[in-house]
Amino acid sequence: MSEGTRTIRIEALARVEGEGALTVHLREGRVEDVHFRIFEAPRFFEALLRGRDLTEVPDITARICGICPVAYQMSACHALEAALGMSLPSPLRALRRLLYCGEWIESHVLHIAFLHAPDFLRFESSIAMAQSSPELAEQVRSALQLKKAGNAIVNLIGGREIHPINVRVGGFYRIPRQDERAALAETLRAARDRAHALLRWVAAFELPAADHDYEFVALRHDDEYPMNEGRLVSNRGLDIAYAEFPNEFQEHQVPYSNALQCRRKGGGAYFVGPLARWNLNHDRLPPEAQQAAAESGLTWPCRNPYASIVVRAVEVLFAVDEAIRLLDTFEPPASAFIPFEPVAAEGVWITEAPRGILYHRYVIDTVGKISEAVIVPPTSQNQRQIEEDLIRFAPSVLDLPDDDAAWRCEQVVRNYDPCISCATHSLKLKVIGR
Amino acid sequence: MTSDPYCPHPAVLRSVEPETPGVATFGMEFQEPARAAAFHHRPGQFNMVYLPGVGEVAISIASAPGEGVGLRHTIRFVGRVTNALQSLRPGAVLGLRGPYGSAWPVEEARGRDVVLVAGGLGLAPLRPAVKALLAERAQYGRLWLLYGARQPSDRLYVAEYADWERAGLELLVTVDRADASWRGAVGIVPLLFRKLALDPSRTLVLTCGPEVMMRATVHEAIDRGVAASDVYVSLERNMQCAVGLCGHCQLGPEFLCMNGPVFPYERVARFLGKEHF
Amino acid sequence: MIAQPLTVLNTRRAPRPRLGVFKFASCDGCQLSLLDCEDELLAVADRVEIAFFREATRRPLEGSFDVSLVEGSVSAPEQEAEIRDVRARSRFLITLGACASHGGIQALRNFSRVDDALAIVYATPETISTLPSSRPASDYVHVDLELPGCPINKRQLLSVLAQMLSGGKPRIDQHALCLDCKRQNVVCVLVAHGSPCLGPVTSTGCGVLCPSYDRPCFSCFGPAPQPNTASLAERFQAIGLSADHIRRLFQMFYNQAPEFLEEARRHE
Amino acid sequence: MVNTSAVVMEKSELGNLIARLWAEGYTVVGPTLAQGAIVFDELRTADQLPIGWTDEQEPGSYRLKRRDDGAYFGYAVGPHSWKKYLFPARLTLFSIERTADSFAVHQGSTDVPRYAFLGVRSCDLHAIAVQDRTFLHGPYVDPHYERRRERAFIIAVQCGTAASTCFCASMNTGPRATQGFDLALTELPEAFVVEVGSERGGALLVGLNVRAANGEIEAAHQVTETTKRQMTRTLDTSDMPALLYENLDHARWDDVAGRCLSCTNCTMVCPTCFCHSVDEVPDLLGERSERVRQWDSCFNPELSHVAGGSTRPDIRARYRQWLTHKLASWIDQFGVSGCVGCGRCITWCPVGIDLTEEVAAIRGSDRA
Ligand SMILES: Cc1cc2nc3c(=O)[nH]c(=O)nc-3n(C[C@H](O)[C@H](O)[C@H](O)COP(=O)(O)OP(=O)(O)OC[C@H]3O[C@@H](n4cnc5c(N)ncnc54)[C@H](O)[C@@H]3O)c2cc1C
Ligand code: SF4
Ligand code: SF4
Ligand code: SF4
Fewer CB in 10 Å around end: N or C, chain A? Predict the structure, then answer.
C-alpha cells in the first residue's frame, strides 16, 4: 500500500469547534505536503471593533468563540485596563480567576469526554460511547456533571455559560451574593471526586508513543499556575513581557486557509496549551494536583502530544480545587468595579485560554473608542505545529485503510483541541499597519 | 377547598368524521361515567378541549343536549392545538372541561319566528340550537337557517340538511365562490335576509360567524325592523381559563367566556363595531 | 392509548426522529448550548437520533432530517448552496441565534465595503472566500422557527424539542423582556438606576440576565414584536445618551433586524 | 379617625412582633432594600426594614434617598406589590401525567406558606380587596388565590409620606387605612400606634409590650392628614366609565401610542391587574407536562392572539384597552375602579407615561 501517490483527505473535521479540513499528500511512502485548512468563514472581528467604545469590547470579542468566551473577555479587559493604567483590587482579581477556572473545567471536560476520548476508544461520538455500555454511560454522565460544575461557575460569576454578561472593563457588574457563592462551593466540592475519576479514566488510555522536541510557550507567574497574568516564557529561553510579543512572533497568511498561522519570528512552529503550561509551570501546581498527576503516570517534562488529554484532566482537577479555594477565601470588595476615564493609549495583554495563550492589543483614542485591535488566538499559534506533527506522524498510518488513516490523523489534530471559530475571527487587519 | 376550575378531565375520542377540507367533527366521551352523567349543556355553550403536551382551546359543543352518547365538536385545523388534534385517531385520550358560557335563547324563542344566521364554522355552535328548535318544532313559528360558506365544498353537516328541512326548517345557503355544480345563491349571507318574509316583531335572530359577517347580519336585521334586543351574536376571543379569571377574552366590560359567548346584540353593540377593541 | 400520532416529531413510532445540527459562520456557541444541557443531553439522544452534528460526532452527512438546527450566518459563497441543501434535507428547520436569524455580530461588516477592505488587507485576497455581507438563512430558504439569542437559551431549545416531541408545533414567547423582569421580581434598572436598558424593545428568552446582574439589557435576543424603538431612544436621549451611543446600542448582535437597523440610522 | 382602641408600641418591640409571627407559623414578608429599591422579601428581623431610607419618585424614575431620621416606614410604595404572594407571577397549577390509557392530574402542593404581610399601605389594602373580587367573589373561585389569601395576616402601615406619583386621595383609597387589616401601625417619631382590626390581630398583641394610647391617637391621625395634604397628583373620576367609553376614538390614543413601549411594566407593577396565561410545559420524555400559570398583560400582543392575528394588533389598541379596563369597564365588572391610586404604573413606566395625565387630556377635549 505504500507505493505511488495517495491523498488522505478529511473534508470536514468532526469533533472540533468550527470548520476545518485536512489534506495529507503522500508520495512513495513519504509525506509530501500537509494542509490544515480552515475554511470557516471569516468574521472580521478586528475590523468590527474599530470605532466601538472600549466598554463594548468584552461583549463583542466574547462572540469570537462560544467555547472560550471568558478567555476573550479576560484578555480584552486586561489589555484595556492596562491601557487605562488600572489595576484591580484582589477580590476582583480573584473573581476573574474563579471565572477562568469555570471555563477551563467546562472547556477541558468537553474536549476530553466529548471530542477526544472517543478517538482513544474508537467511537464516532461520546453519545455512541455512552450508548455502548453501562460503564461508559456512567463515565459520560459523570463527565457531564463535572462539566456542569464548571459551567455553574461561569453561570454564577458570568451570568450565563456562553457569552457571559457580568464581565466589564474595570471589574464586574454585580458581585455574587454570599448565599450564591456558598451554594457554588458546595457544587464544586461535590465535583472533586468526579475530577479525580476523570483523570484516572484518561490516564488508563493507551497513548500512542511520540516524543518530539517542541518549543513550548506559556505564561509563567511568580507563584500561581498561570491564568490571567505572568511573563511569556518558553523552554528555549524566551522570557518576555506581553508587549514584546510582536517582536518574537508573526502571523502569516497561507493560501489554503482562512486563518492566519502564527510562528516564531525567524523560527518555526511552537506549541501552546495545556501541555505547554504543564511543561513550563508544573512546579506552580499545588501539591495535590502534582500528586494526582504523578499517580496518573504523567511525566515531567512530557513531549508526547497525545498526553495533552491527561494534562487537561490534571488541569480540571486543579481548577476545581482552585475555584473552591478562591470561593472559600473570598472577601467581597466595596464595589463591583473600578470606574475610569478614557485616555488615548495602547494596551497589550496575554492570558491563558484553555487552548493556550491569547494575545490582545488595543489602541484607544481620547474618547475611549477603539482605533486598532489585534487578536492572536491559540489555535492560530498551534496551526503550524499541527501540520508539522502530521508530517511526522503520517508515515505511520500508511498501511491503514483510508478511513482509519483519516481517523488517526484527526486524532493528532485533536491533541491540540483546535478551536477554529477562534482562528478565523479575523482576516488580518493587522497587516495594514505594516 | 374549592376545586380547581382549570383542571381538565380525561375523555376518549370515539369518532372522527371529516366534514370539509381542514374541518372534522370529533365525537368524544368522558372517561368517568359519573362525569358524563353530570354533564349538562345548553345550545351555544362551549368546552375547553385539552391535548396533553400541546395545550387547550375553546371549542363549541356541536351536539345538542341529549343527542346520542358523548359530545361532538367540529374543529377547524388552524394552529398549534387544532393541528395536533387533526392527527388523533379514535381511542386517543384528551381532556375536556365545561360546559362554559351563555346559551342561545331557545326557551325565550317559544312562540316566535327564529332566523339562524351562520357563517362558515359558525354553524357548529348553532347546530345544537337547530336540533333543539326542531325537537320541539310545534313550539315555534317559522324557522329559517341562513348559511354562508366560502364554497360549496366548505358546507358543514350537508348530510343533515334534508332531515332538517323535513322537520320544518327553511334552509337558505349561499356561497362566496360557486363551482359548476352549484345551483344556489352566491354572495354574502346577510343578503339572504332580503329573501325572507319577516314579521320583525315576532322574530328572533341568532347569528354566529366571522365578526364582520355578524355585524352585517345585525344591521340587516335591524334595518328590517327586528329589535336590537332580539338579535343574538356569539363572539370569540382568545380564551385560556374560560371562567372569567385570565382576562384574555374581554370585550369592554364583558368576559366573553362567562357572560358570553352568546350576547343580545344590544348588550355589546357599542363595543362590537370599535376597531381593535 | 393517549393522544397518539404526533404531528411534528413522531416519538412513539420507531425510528426515532432524526436531528441534524449544522454550522455556518458563527462562534459555535449556539450548538454548544445543546452540549451544555448536561442533565438532558443523554435523554435527548435517547429520544431523537442525533444523525448529524459535526461538533459532537464523526457521523457523515447522509439522508434527511426531521428537525435541523442551523447555526451561523451565510457569509461565504459555498454556504449559499449549503443552506439550500440543508433545507432540502429537512422537514422542520430551526435557526439558532442571532447569526442564523439576522446575520449576527459579524453582520456589522455589512455597513462597510468588504471588497475594498479585502484588497487592502490581504496579500492574496483571492484565496479568501467571503460574501460581501453576512446574511440570515431566511434570505435563502424558508425557516420554520427562529430561536433568538446570542447565544440561544438552552432552556428554550429544550422546550422547543419537548413541544415537538409532544406533537405540537413549537412556539416560544417573544414579548418584551420587561414582562419577565417583573415576573422575576427584578427591579427595573432603567427606572431605578437610569441605565439605558433595551429590555422594553427586546424579545424575552434570556431569562432576564442583565437586569438581574444590575446591568441594562443590550439586546442579545433581538427586537420584540412591534418594538417602539423611537420612544425608547428618546428616553435615552433624555437621560443623557449621545446619538452615537444610541446608534451603537442598536448596532450590536441584531444590527440587521429591520427595526434596529432603522433606529440606528436615525442616530447616525 | 384612628380606632380608639389603639395601643402604643415602642419601636424596639417591632422585632418581637416579627418573631412572634414566625413563631406562630407565619412567613413574614415586607419591605427591605435590594437592587437599589425598596422591595418585598422575607423579614426575619426588624433591622431588615429600610430604616432611614426614602424613595423619590417621578414618572419613569425612582431613586432611593437617605432620610435624616431613623424612620422605619418613611417611604411610599416600591416596585413590588402584595399580589406577588397572593397571585404568584409563575405558578404550576398542576401536572398531567400520561398513564397507560388515560392521564392523571397531580395537584401541586396545597401547603402554601401562611404569609404575614408587614407594611401594607391603604392603597394596597384596597388593591387586595379589588383582587378578592376578581378571584374570590365571581361565579368561579380561584383556589390558588383563595388558599393564600385566607391564611394571610395583614399588618398595615399608615402612610407618613406620599410620593409625587401617589393619588390615593382621588381614588378614595387612602392614605388612611380603615379596614381590611389585622393590625395597623402608625409611625410616630418615638413609637408606633397600633390599631387592632381583627380578633387574631388583637390576639397577636397579647404578651407583647404595648400600652394604652392617649395623646398618640391624635398624633397618629395627623400623620395621614399631613400625607393627604402632601399629595399633588389627582385623577378626576367623575363620569367614569362613560368618559372613556365615549372617547374610544379620541386622538389622544394615537398620541400615547407614539410614546408607549407596550412593555407591560405598568400592568406588572399594578397591584390589581390579574391577567394571566396558562401554558403547557411538556417534558422531554413526553410523559408529563405542567400547566403553568403566569402573569400576562394586555400589552403583550399574544394576549389577544387568535388564529389569523391579534385582536389588538397595535399599541394604540393595547393602551386603550388597558386604560379603559382599569378605570372604566372594571367598574362594570366588579363594582369598583381597577385603580387604587398607588402610582406604581407612573413611576415604573420606563418612559414615564402617567395615566392621570392621559385621562385629563381626554377629559380636557372630551368629545372634541
Ligand atoms: C367560545 C369559542 C368557541 C369556539 N368554537 C370553535 C369551534 O367550534 N370549532 C373551532 O374549530 N374553533 C372554535 N373556536 C376557535 C378555537 O378556539 C381556535 O381556533 C383555537 O383556539 C385555535 O387554537 P390553535 O392552538 O390551534 O391555534 P393557534 O393560532 O396556534 O393559537 C394559539 C392560541 O391562541 C388562542 N386562539 C387562537 N385562535 C383563537 C380563536 N379563534 N378564538 C379564541 N382563541 C384563539 C388560543 O388560546 C390558542 O391556544 C372557538 C373559540 C371560542 C372562543
Ligand atoms: S430593567 Fe429593563 S427590561 Fe426590566 S423592566 Fe426595566 S426597562 Fe424593562
Ligand atoms: S438582558 Fe438583554 S443583553 Fe442581557 S442577556 Fe438578556 S437579552 Fe441579552
Ligand atoms: S393603575 Fe397605576 S396607579 Fe392605579 S392601581 Fe394600578 S399601578 Fe396603581
Answer: C
